[in-house]
Amino acid sequence: MNLVSNIQKFATLPVLLGLAISSATLQASDLAPRFTDANGDMVADAPTDPKDWIDPNVLIFAYTPVEDPAVYAQVWDDFLKHMEKVTGKRVQFFPVQSNAAQLEAMRAGRLHVAGFNTGSNPLAVNCAGFVPFTMMARDDGSFGYEMEIITRPDSGIAKVEDIKGRSLAFTAPTSNSGYKAPSALLSAEFGLEAEVDFTPSFSGSHDNSILGVVNKDYDAAAIANSVLKRMVSRNVVSEADYTTIYTSQTFPTTGYGYVYNLKPELAEKVKEAFFSYEWAGSPLEAEFTNSGEAQFIPITYKEHWEVVRTIDAAMDVTYNCN
Predict the structure, then answer these.
(1) Which residues, including other chains, have CB under 8 Å from residue 272's CB and lie 6 or more apart?
(2) Where are the domains of the chain?
(3) Where does the signal sequence lie (predicted)?
(4) Fewer beta carbons within 10 Å, N or C terminal of the chain?
């Protein structure tokens, strides 16, 4: 099964250019036929027959593979211990290496709770039965990150138009800030097409793209600035290593949730674990404070991912969930 979006040629990006797209397009459900959505919330309903629920002895958790999995196994360890206390289950960190591997694991029933990156949420919802219910936010309840296009200070690239004839790194086809949003932006606003006006590459992750720019593997890269801030805070790169030539509007960040057929009582315990976690003094606070996050807030896929679905619609993105 191929879970990677079929990215086709697009004409405009309504969100960035202030154009409209029909509400019917935004609200239409793209769920795979094996799922149902009786309440119209655009995510898969839990099975009505209890025999179709899963109640694993060990809950498997995976964080979106944007950076070194070994680093994030430690960052999430305290939270997962908290989830163990709340759910009464052992919880194991699953260090996924790619978005595709994470999606396939949930679809196959090997992944129960996860944080999927912004661009992968629609694919996870529609093809893997992912039910996102929370994301990280700042103390005041605000949330999100921006897509930035970065380059080296000595690259000779001072503005987006200067990318013409140069190389630019994307992360993966499912990434919002690492591919879909910048691709649409470069074409619609600046008339730059991959393979025609610049040489594209896929680095596999935001940290690879950032390090690739710093180490002169790429002339420029489209990245999530939340990842960049965390790398600066860990002294992996310094602010003198790069310069930003474009910053987008704000997008929702990683969505956290569970697989649709998790036993409903257990799913509620998973929610409780997120919303009862004490951030103060925690490893999560230490890691994410530089990008502003300080709590988990409730979200819905239908509302909070509308901007991402708009981008997908503008790019004629379709999902192969067969």
Answers:
(1) 86
(2) 14-142+252-314, 145-251
(3) 1-28
(4) C
